[in-house]
Every structure is written in structure tokens, then in C-alpha cells.
Amino acid sequence: MKARWDIFCSVVDNYGDIGVTWRLARQLVVEHACAVRLWVDDLRAFERLCPQIDVRRDAQWQEGVDVRHWPAEWPGATAADVVIAAFACQLPPDYMEAMAARDRVPLWVNLDYLSAEEWVVGCHRLPSVTFKGVQKYFFFPGFRPGTGGLLREAGLLEQRQAFQRDAGAQQQFLHALGIFPAADARLISLFAYENAGLASWLELLSTDGRATHLLVPEGRILGDVQRWLGLERLAAGDIRQRGALTVQVIAFVPQAHYDRLLWCCDFNAVRGEDSFVRAQWAGRPLLWHIYRQDEDIHLDKLDAFLELYTAGLSPAARVALIGLWHAWNTDGDMAQPWKRLLEHWPEVNLHAETWCLEQGLQADLATALVQFYESWI
């Protein structure tokens, strides 16, 4: 019998949490023959990543996954063999009772937030609270050995490398999305939270000696782009040019298309967790906009990643990259940090690919979860 999995996702940050759980659910079905129900409380947000979703239906099949609407009033359901509470979401009380009522209690996992901090290794797979004999365990994605690894589908890196070697395939993909960059233009994607430092970066790009084509998916950063352009509104499909900078707003695309968009770009500015990981698999230089927390404790998490990520860089390139990331995540002026990064571009570009391949040597998150369940039973 296939192991039955229930994954619960409470959408908090629009797309990051559903992005992670949707990828995980599909991979468990396709690569590990698991029967997966994905419980989501906001199907409207899910629809942006999976346009086939019918937001009016409480139950539907999408790509082999049993997708369920998680309503305020719990509809009742038997508990699965493995129960994943994504990002510490609270399970319905009646479902917890159903877990405790099983003859064989399920494996209950809190799939935590991604972090590069050292303490994660010591907490990974440790027991947490219990409910009527059902034990919950911490499970941490991560970059270090001894963590749960990162979401990575089988063959992903090989597919990415083949795509990046095929200029015709890249052009065909971009043209299908209505993207026609100049032959010598630097292609950058920008998916970020609101950022007061954006204007200084855009101003520099507009006066640069090299053309830049900036792709901006619909999202929270769009307001800052509008203000810099002096416009009241920007929408998907709009293209504006100022000096050497072309700004193009693009609609949300399915996850597989977003992956390829990142593969096409020379530089990717990303936010949250899902796009952050996918930008690393692109093997291209990136800029992470981490979710801001009270008292700036998010900067500790940022620095923990930078310590790992920049370890193989020369001192000067390391300083340049860290300076850019810190400016971006403190709403600082981006002009000088961007100029300094460009001085080390060949090294930073090569390093992005090296880091990607090194991370690809670790077990992926879905496989690590399956192995945890197999060892637990």
C-alpha cells in the first residue's frame, strides 16, 4: 500500500508557503509514489501558481495530488500515515483527534522555515510536543549536512544546464511570454517585497553603458517601480523604457515556467523561500530579499546564509556581494554596491554555478522526508 500523506498549508505570505508545499506534494507523488492530499486555506493564492485550480471546488485532482480546500469549519477526514504541518501551521482540532484515534499513530512533522543557521542541524528531526500519544517532530530544510536539504526534483540540474546551453530554446520560451530583449541586454528578474532602495538601483541601470531588460512579475515591488517611473499604474504586459533600462511587467506563471525564466536571466532578485531556492538552482548570480522581522532578527538569518554562500569567493568579491545584499535588505543605496559587484562579475557568475552543484550533492527535501518516515516506521 502507498503511504498516505496529508500536507497542511496555511497561506500567510501569498506565495512562498503554497509554492513550497505544492512542489513538495507533486514530487512525493511523482518520484516516491505517495498518495498526497494537500490542504490549502487560500485557493485564490494557489490559483496564481496553478491556473488549473478551480477555486469553487473543495476537492479536485491536480497533477496527481488530491487538492482540498481547508475551510474554517473542518469538514472531517481520516488522518494519513504522514502529517506535515507546513511552517508551524496549527492543525484542525478534530483532525488531531483523528490522528490520536488511529490504530497506528501517524508521523507528525512540522516542516519548518529554511535557514542556514548552525543551530538548525542540532534541532533537525528532534521531537517536539505530543498530543494524546502522537509525537510531533521538527524537520528543517537547510544547506548544511545534517539538515533536510532543499526541494529539488530528479534531473532538475541536468534539465537546467541543457536549457541554458540551448539559445534557441531560451529565445522560444521568452518569446512565448512576450519577452523580446535586445541581443546585448542584461536580463534581470525582480521579485521582491517593497524596497526603498530600488530607485537608486533603477536609476543606475538607466544610465548604464549596457542595456538592461528588467522583468518584474506582478507583486509587492511593483508600487516602487511605478513611483520611479512616475506612473499611477503598471500591469502585466506593460513595457516602459528609460535610458538604458527597459522595464517589463509579466504575469504570474506556473512554477515550471518560473524556473525557466530564472534560467534565462543573467541575474535574479528573489524573495521569500521558494523563489530563493529556485534561483540557486538556476546557477546564476542572485539577490535575496529576506522577509523582514521585528528587531531585524532576519539579518542574522541572512548573514548565516552569506557566511556559507560566500566561503569560496575571493575576499574582494565576497565583500562586494555581501555589501549588495546588505544594502538591499536595509533599504540602502544600491548604486555603489551594484557597481562593485559588476567588477567581480566573472567570479561571482562562476561561483553561482559551483554553489548550485555543491548543494545538488545533498539529498533533496522530499527524499529526506520519505527516508525519515521509513526509518520511523
Based on secondary structure, the structural category is alpha/beta
Multimeric state of these chains?
single chain
Low-confidence segments, given as residue ranges, are none
How many extended strands? 14
Walk across the major sheet and give the strand order: 3-4-2-1-5-6-8-7
Cα end-to-end separation:
14 Å
Function: Protein-arginine rhamnosyltransferase that catalyzes the transfer of a single rhamnose to elongation factor P (EF-P) on 'Lys-32', a modification required for EF-P-dependent rescue of polyproline stalled ribosomes.
GO molecular function: translation elongation factor activity
Keywords: Elongation factor, Glycosyltransferase, Protein biosynthesis, Transferase
Catalytic activity: dTDP-beta-L-rhamnose + L-arginyl-[protein] = N(omega)-(alpha-L-rhamnosyl)-L-arginyl-[protein] + dTDP + H(+)
Task: Explain what this protein looks like in three dimensions.
- The chain is an alpha/beta fold.
- The chain is built from 15 helices and 14 strands.
- It has two domains: 4-151 and 362-376, Rossmann fold (3-Layer(aba) Sandwich); 156-359, Rossmann fold, CATH 3.40.50.
- The strands form two sheets. Strands 3-4-2-1-5-6-8-7 form an eight-stranded mixed β-sheet.
- Strand 13, helix 10 and strand 14 (286-289) form a beta-alpha-beta unit.
- It comes from Pseudomonas azadiae.
- Belongs to the glycosyltransferase 104 family.
